Amino acid sequence: MKKSILAIGLGMSLLLSTPIMADVPDIDLASMSTEDLVSLRDSINAEIANKGGDNIIGEGVYTVGTDIKAGNFKVTPMKGYDGRTSFYIFKDSSEYDDYKGGNYDAGDCVIDLDSYEENDTDFGNLVLKDGEILYIDRGNAIIEEVDPSWKPE
Asked: In 3-state terms, what secondary structure has residue 71?
């Protein structure tokens, strides 16, 4: 009797510890149009963002090499923010300080992204180098690293 109770308990614990996998439909990506693929990618990125994903960058000041790595990035505005997200790049912190002090000629506004409409497909490319300051004014964006495979190493 003890053995059967132990066996039932062991069997139940194995059943409870077995991970349950949701049925994931096979998606034939090769048969999808570019437009459908882009729409699918945007939906996936939005869902990742809704779950607190790691590919969202928000307004603030980032030191390249410390807060964000140097590299090439594609940025796409987050839908739902009613306005424009601007990305400024400054060669160093003193140039950023000049800008915040009222010298609006300091630095370069490299990208203005609109996120007014749900169907907007606005995006931009950032090239960030160590020591630069990235300032994002308003809003959030999806950021993806771009590997320019054509570029010599």
From this structure: strand
Q: Which two tokens stand for residue 104?
A: 């609006």
Q: Identify the CA nearest to 108 among candidates 95, 93, 94.
A: 95
Residue with tokens 């606005």: 122
Counted residue by residue, the chain has a size of: 153
Q: What span, in angstroms and rounded, lies between the C-alpha atoms of 137 and 135?
A: 6
Residue with tokens 């590919």: 55
Return the bridge partners of 143, or none. 75
Picking from 5-19, 44-58, 60-74, which range would have the lowest pLDDT averaged per residue? 5-19
Element spanning 140, H or E: strand 133-145
pTM of this prediction?
A: 0.60
